What we know:
Blueprint: H1 2-52, H2 71-87, H3 94-101, H4 107-127, E1 129-135, E2 141-144, E3 154-167, E4 170-185, E5 196-205
Antiparallel strand pairs: 1-3, 2-3, 3-4, 4-5
Helix pairs in contact: 2-3
Amino acid sequence: MDFIARAGSVVDKWQRIAGLLLVLLIITFFWTYQVISENRRLNAQYESLRAQAQVYVVPGSVAGFYTPANSDVMLKELSYLIVNSLNNYTYQNLENQYREIQGFFNDDMLAVAQSHFKELISVAYQDERSAKFIPDQTAFRIEGDTGPSGRGKKQTVIIEGTRQYIMAGTVVEAEPIRFTMEFKQRFISKANPFGFELLSYDEKVLNR
């Protein structure tokens, strides 16, 4: 009888613990639900306020995505992105870097570039060759249309520096080089936050 009494006491104890855990679980559930509901309410309020917010647009401007940055700054950033993607690479990542910047090429440029860079990627992979570009910041310049920014405006960007080819961790060649790129201004979009597309890309080894 004593054994049965002790067993009953143990069962009763675990039942009380289970009941307490159930109560805590219910409290936690309702607390979590309230937090989620409050977050949803705050998000809805934020979206409502954002939708009603007024934005001042300069008279004469056109609809589209706007950026506070100067267009020349955006053009410079895109120019270096393209040059670095194509001239700072290892043979393993060159193809991925090329794909990432294709979206900034116009259709004609893309058609011309495909065969050229396909061969470059193939050679780099076969030779296990990497490259490093060291720009000459003093040689950077933008030429062409210097008028107000707007869709259709064309500009030429020139970047100079030294490109090194590296194999097995050793620089096997270093050449002074000039990159000349022509761009056309477009509307800024999510796909093209710089607002420019590449029309042409040319590289010339100097002193040769």
